[in-house]
Amino acid sequence: MKQSLIQQIEAICSDRGVRLTPQRRLVFELISKNKKASSAYELLEQLKAVEPQAKPPTVYRALDFLLEQGFIHRVESTNSFVSCCSFGEQKHFSHLLICDKCGNVVELQDDNLIALLDKNIDKHQFQFSNHVIESHGTCKNCSSLEK
User: Which residues are registered as beta bridge partners of 82?
Assistant: First the structure.
């Protein structure tokens, strides 16, 4: 994990007056190291390697904090978590491409799609708190393995 990324997140937390505890930092680092989405229990097992006394509430509290701050996304369809490509923006649109074969997740930011979604939200005078589009399929690497 790049130190500068953690430093950026620490700076955002400081600006917002919230605390990036060692457990929150470690859970974020675990999520960020993986291209695949991580479940809470996978994260708990990884966390136990460093902190044997870690319990599920530790992970869930860290996940809640990281979600609230916009540092990660929940992959709703698999109840798992990935790091955010534009971390720190508490409200934004994202489009997740999820490979059903290998589990890799890619987050996209498409200005045209965002403009269309913004237009629809404004048209209906809707105030959104979170917007994630999930597309499931097969990534390029897995597709090439099938041939």
Answer: 73
Q: Any idea which residue has 């966390």 for tokens?
A: 47
CA distance 23 to 102: 28
Measured CA to CA in angstroms, residue 71 lies from 19, 32, 51, 84, 112 at distances of 13, 10, 22, 5, 23
pTM assigned to the model: 0.82
Instruction: Give the single-character DSSP code of 56.
Output: H
Joined tokens for residue 9: 């997140």
Alpha helices in 1-147 (DSSP H): 3-16, 22-33, 40-50, 56-68, 111-123, 140-146
Phi/psi of residue 143, nearest 5 degrees = -65, -40
Query: What does the pLDDT look like over 113-133, one tens digit per residue?
Result: 888 888 988 999 988 766 778
pLDDT digits (tens, 9 = 90+) for 30-75: 999 987 999 999 999 999 999 999 999 999 999 999 999 989 989 9
Beta bridge partners of 104: 36
